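Input chain follows. Return structure tokens only.
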Amino acid sequence: MLDARTTDDAAAQVTVVNLSGVTFMDSSGINALIAAHHAAQSRGGRLRLAAPSPAVCEILGIVGLTEVTPCRPTLLDALAA
């Protein structure tokens, strides 16, 4: 299950994707996150990834997504960062 949350603060424009329930990610999921990253950037915002499993975080690192959208260990960490 993918759960995305966006702050109400227009200045922050942060979207957090909760990956805690994701145990596997293929190219479709990666492409969705890349599209979300580009969409956030295009409106001056940021995308944050929260609580990915070690396997998902490894895949995100291999494709380079963690270079532009760091993984946070918990949803609270991602919301606070």
